[in-house]
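Good morning,

Attaching, inline, the backbone tokens for the sequence recovery test we're adding to the shared suite. The designed sequence is right after.
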């Protein structure tokens, strides 16, 4: 089971990988487009963005903004993983819980992010807005994926575990985890990108002091296009690094539990 899961994971990684030559081509297209347009206020070149990043990196305000947003968005994501998983388990065991949770999850997924941000801003201080928004956006994804994984489990294995009265800790480790883990991982892969998009959008609207969203808003107000692009690159890089690191640790954890 463990080797099969790892083999599938490696195969999926190959298909999901981004080729460096493709990135280089798009950077070249970006550079040529900026040179052809000749208006940095409309489209700044990647070279100018890198120079702007070089100016931002040495300052503590740059790192404090990243830490401010990273901590809150990550907290919202982790809370969503926890609550979404617990809600999925309860929904799989208790019909009324599933019936009550279903419309709520649908509503959360249907309401536009901007509307949610404005509504939540009425009740939550702007400093914590990105935590709540990230949590709300990711929870339905985790809940539905984990519930789908539980529902697709082999019923013969669960019946056999009932017959032999297998203790719950052993069921969790050797029966539930291998079958539900791929669904949870898929939810995390989708949720990680969404929580950063929604979290930063919340900061742009709520404007908490010292956040990445505030930096983006200031760059837009003052028509500082290099800064705007530079902070956008920062968001992409931080989100990508966190996603790769989190999924790597998750894969290693699942593999270790399956092997032991």
């Amino acid at each position: 089971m463990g080797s099969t899961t790892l083999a599938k994971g490696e195969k999926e990684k190959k298909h999901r990988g981004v080729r460096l030559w493709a990135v280089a081509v798009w950077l070249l297209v970006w550079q040529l487009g900026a040179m052809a347009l000749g208006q940095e206020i409309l489209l700044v070149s990647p070279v100018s963005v890198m120079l702007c990043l070089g100016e931002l990196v040495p300052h503590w305000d740059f790192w404090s903004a990243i830490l401010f947003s990273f901590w809150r968005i990550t907290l919202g994501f982790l809370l969503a993983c926890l609550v979404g998983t617990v809600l999925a388990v309860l929904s799989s065991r208790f019909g009324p819980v599933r019936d009550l949770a279903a419309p709520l999850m649908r509503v959360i997924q249907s309401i536009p992010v901007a509307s949610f941000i404005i509504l939540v801003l009425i009740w939550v201080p702007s400093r914590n807005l990105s935590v709540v928004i990230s949590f709300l956006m990711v929870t339905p994804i985790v809940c539905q994926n984990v519930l789908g994984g539980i529902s697709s489990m082999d019923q013969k294995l669960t019946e056999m575990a009932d017959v032999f009265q297998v203790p719950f800790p052993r069921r969790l480790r050797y029966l539930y985890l291998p079958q539900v883990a791929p669904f949870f991982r898929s939810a995390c892969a989708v949720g990680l990108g969404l929580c950063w998009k929604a979290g930063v959008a919340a900061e742009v609207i709520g404007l908490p002091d010292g956040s990445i969203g505030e930096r983006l808003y200031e760059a837009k107000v003052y028509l500082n296009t290099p800064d705007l692009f530079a902070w956008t690159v920062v968001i992409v890089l931080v989100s990508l690094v966190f996603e790769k690191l989190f999924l790597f640790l998750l894969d290693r954890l699942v593999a270790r539990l399956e092997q032991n």
